């Protein structure tokens, strides 16, 4: 659902995919190859929200802010299921873990990884390449080359997902029985531990 609000119509690049069960409102600019999952709300009613190229905002996320603020999710930012971004800026190629909350005027540096269920307080400045966990969130170490390589590969899957959805996602009636020739899905990704266990 795409909504015009007070004269602002969202701008969505044709290569991006916004799920029909997501809501994008007002002054929102979505770049190339972005994925917006079902249940997500991106509300540019009180300020501008920019998603640069390759950003994904997964299922049931909220992106909003206090009145008069504008925010940017920089290129390849990856926002996990159920996260809330409220008036915060996200750096390039960062990962925001599932059900985490990033509060107003926080600034997440490039290539940071914020752990699942972390709470990043308002006005926090997180240096680039930081691993952040906890409530309240704290920097616990620097993100390694292996960790950011793993994160980048996962984000690349989401950058391919818009094209896959535009090509093949269709509303259908469910089958009532499992087909005898049901195919298996290819293995596209491994956990961080599996990826680097032989190094």
Automatic annotation (TrEMBL):
What GO molecular function terms would the record report? transferase activity
Determine the domain of life of the protein's source. Answer: Bacteria
Listed Pfam families: Hexapep
Q: Which UniProt keywords apply?
A: Transferase
Q: Which InterPro entries match?
A: Hexapep, Transf_Hexapept/Carb_Anhydrase, Trimer_LpxA-like_sf
Which PANTHER family does the UniProt entry name for this protein?
DYNACTIN SUBUNIT P25, GAMMA CARBONIC ANHYDRASE-LIKE 1, MITOCHONDRIAL-RELATED
Identification of the protein by name? Transferase hexapeptide repeat family protein
Species: Formosa maritima
